[in-house]
Structure formats: structure tokens, C-alpha cells
Amino acid sequence: MFPLPEPMRLALDAARAAAEAGEVPVGAVLVHAGRVIATAANAPRGLRDPTAHAEMRVIRAAAAALGRERLEDCDLWVTLEPCAMCAGAIAHARIARVYYGAGDPKGGAVEHGPRFFAQPTCHHRPEVYPGIGEAEAGEILRDFFRERRG
Amino acid sequence: MFPLPEPMRLALDAARAAAEAGEVPVGAVLVHAGRVIATAANAPRGLRDPTAHAEMRVIRAAAAALGRERLEDCDLWVTLEPCAMCAGAIAHARIARVYYGAGDPKGGAVEHGPRFFAQPTCHHRPEVYPGIGEAEAGEILRDFFRERRG
Lengths: 150, 150
Prior knowledge:
The structure is a homodimer of 150-residue chains.
Chain A: H1 6-20, E1 27-32, E2 35-41, H2 44-47, H3 54-66, E3 74-80, H4 84-92, E4 97-102, E5 127-130, H5 134-149
């Protein structure tokens, strides 16, 4: 078994932290010039903010850290396939590459549902690399929902 | 000519303020229990935040004001058809009704492109009322882009 890339390991740690906080366990990391500049867990309940997905939080944190709206020299790592909201934000931010773990047939918008980056109206298409850390990301999600079902 | 409903007039005022600030002129208003609880202009450049569309800003402000993640008893008024990011946020927030002005064939995600609310994977569909204030919203946008083209 090969080790996972560092950003995905950090994203999986953030997903586990989300689970402990009672949030759907998804984590994300933003990399700029080879360095991690933002890490975030999914937190809509805790923050009482329906937009506070892990991807949105790292994009906003990275834009604030770099002092600019466009992140064309940044890569996003996230444990779950982004939803429509987050895929839209990724396109607006002009993120170069998206690496994600598990696919999400129910809410994903990259390889499922609206397949946003494949839409003719999508104005920026990042390179997309799915499946990295898929097993771990899926296990964290399954454990979370199994425990909640009791 | 009938007057426009108060929330759309306020949203159009916010769109004009965005234009004066050099932002693509879109404005939004959030109504809860018959009262306007948040108003915002599109501001990704000024705030250096690619997620700072008018809709995202009023949703976040309203969730903060009400202290909860779900806005199922709220209506959103916006001058332009929401994009995929904003449509996703509207669904996550469980907003009851969306009233919008001009359609957006280039970036809209309600009646154009991914038609997000019509996707089987969309977990909440608001009632949607397009075309209210369409003429004014479209004129503000056209004036803005005409002036920028010089």
C-alpha cells in the first residue's frame, strides 16, 4: 500500500475532526506553490452557515491569505466529490487542479448530477483527479452515518 | 407600469451600488416573516473573495442573524438568475422561494446550463419566480458592461 499525498492526509484528518464535531465528515486543503495554505473541515452546523462546506472554507481562507479573488495557481484537495455550490466556487476561483477522494452519487456535481465542469456554461474547468484516498474517505463517511443511525 | 415589490427595488438599489463600486451589478435581498433581514451587493473584487456573490452574502448574513443553518421560512430576491454556486447554496439553505430579475444565459444555473433545481440529485427545490424587475436589472447590467468597454 502506497502512502497518500500529504495534502490528502491532512484533508482526511480534517474530515475526522468534522465527524468528532458532529458534522458530515468532509475535509479540504488548499495548496499554493507547493505549500498548504489552508485546511478546513465541513462545518455548516457549528458555524450555522449553510455555505460552510470544507471546500468553500479553504477557498475563502486562501483568497484572504493571498489577498486576491483568483486562485489560478492553487490546487484543491478534498475528501468527497464537490457539490454544485462548491464546484461553482472552484470555477469562480479559477482553481487549477482538484483532487478528490470518494465520489458522491447523491450530492456530487463533478461526475454525478449536473456534472458542472462539463457544462458549456462553465467558464473554467480545473483538471480533476478523483479517487485519491477514496477508501479512507468512504470509510470515515460510512462510520459516521452508521453511528448516527445507532 | 406597476411598481416593483419592495424587496426587488432594494435588490436593484444594491445592484446599482455594486456597479458604482466597479463590481458586476447584481443585488440580493433576504426576506424572513415579511421583513427584509439582509441586503447585499455582488462584491468578489472588493472583498477579494470569489464566493462573495450577492446571494451568498445575504444567505450567510441571514443565517448569522437568525442563528441557524436552515432558512426554510425565508425568500430570496435577486436581480440576476443565480449561478451554480448560488443555486447550490439556496438548496443547502432550504430557501422557500426565489424571485429573480434577468435570466443569465452565460452563467445562470436555474433556467440555463445545469438547471440545478431540476436535477434528480438536487435535495431541495425552492419555488422559482423569474422575470420580476427583469427590464431594470438587465439595463443596469448592460450599462455597466457598455461603460467598461469604453
